[in-house]
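Record type: monomer structure entry
Structure origin: computed from sequence
Chain ID: A
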Amino acid sequence: MPSGPLIAIGFDLDDPASRYWLDNATITLTETESTDPRVVTVDSIDATLAEIAGRCARSPLAATICDDVLRATAACTELWPGLALESLAYSTLQAGPEFERWLSERGPARTAEESAEAVLTSRSADTIEIWFNRPHRHNAFDNRTRAGLLDALTVARLDPSVRAVHLRGAGPSFCSGGDLAEFGTFVDPAASHVARTRHSPAQAIDELTRRLGRECMASVHGRVLGSGLEMASFFGTVRAHPDTVFGLPELDLGLIPGAGGTVSVTRRIGRWRTAYLVLSGRTIPAATALAWGLVDEIGE
């Protein structure tokens, strides 16, 4: 195994000698168009390499652990082993120096009382509609949102008459990721892991997708970042507004995706392009997400 992420440069992807690197690199960068899921086409290889190198140098532990976890979860045929591995790695990084540095740079978190329900739910015939309802925070995912989403998903799971589930976000974005004001409030890494794996929407969404197929749908728009992208990727259908941007910015915090994304996003686009999103920190537009298979359709 490499000591950290291994970035390959692809000039002749059809050369048989390239096969080893395509399979084994963390990601292969090229400046030519490619539909190979192991490859990302960029405008400038040099600029992209410099950007990734700088981010990995700032958070080398998180970058290395991300590479390890993505390689391992890509081989998981069942959901639970992948979620457990991701969560254990995430908890390890929460106790590490890179996350501690980010917390210090952030300073004291500021939270405000909110009176509105974080999640709204309605039912029409056999369809359950769920809305994230923190539009002023771009639906940043906090503990209240998690609890409300789990309640709504539990109703859908336990009621066999439910034939469709539809998740949306109120306001300018579907979900901009975890609420940064709550980061750093875990009791200890072990308790954090237990809470994350026992109260995660990922398993409920995955179960509903296996039962309902394409009728388990997430309609996304605006910012779909971090946990927002991770959860959406578990749905049987992801419909994106043309204005949507997607990304996995967790490395900025010295962390990796922790809401199931190393499983859900990897299922859709492979470990290589998932690694690109994490290591580069770049966002991609809806058209690229559709071409990669991260979303299933684009519509208003």
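Annotation 1: The chain has a mean pLDDT of 94.
Annotation 2: The longest strand covers residues 119-124.
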